Amino acid sequence: MSRTIMLIPTGTSVGLTSVSLGVIRAMERKGVRLSVFKPIAQPRTGGDTPDQTTTIIRKNSSIPAAEPLQMSRVESLLGSNQQDVLMEEIISRYHANTQNAEVVLVEGLVPTRKHQFANALNYEIAKTLNAEIVFVMALGNDSPAQLKERIELTQSSFGGQKNKNITGRDHQ
């Protein structure tokens, strides 16, 4: 059974694509059989244009990258209260594209004004795929104490201290 790691951005401009590509490159160099799974396309320009991470991987790597669901499809399902159908589609795409992988890297949605459902959906996807969660955030101008507080606040949206799938947290 493969190990599933989900990179979840805590906001915009955190460098999610750069972090994803860095993790992919590091695993490639170690010879890890990797698959990349971006469940939902979230193009910077909006609409149903190709997703940046998926496009870069396909052009520069032999690593399998599943076709993400279009945001319009996701919004339609969520708008008609069919999150269960959405999760089934995500699981189906996940299993169809990750059979031979030792590690599956999942890239979560960026929470934006237009996609305020991103954190809740990221949490549901992580739970459904039983993924280890790695938060991706930018330090900004925060002090270490402020950063710790921001991490704890984010963690609380993902099950808090009880969620053992959150990686890199303080296990007190």
TrEMBL record:
The keyword Acyltransferase applies. The keyword Repeat does not apply. Coiled coil: none annotated. Its EC number is 2.3.1.8. InterPro entries: P-loop_NTPase, Phos_Acetyltrans/Butyryltrans. Keywords: Acyltransferase, Transferase. GO terms for molecular function: phosphate acetyltransferase activity. This is Phosphate acetyltransferase. SUPFAM superfamilies: P-loop containing nucleoside triphosphate hydrolases.
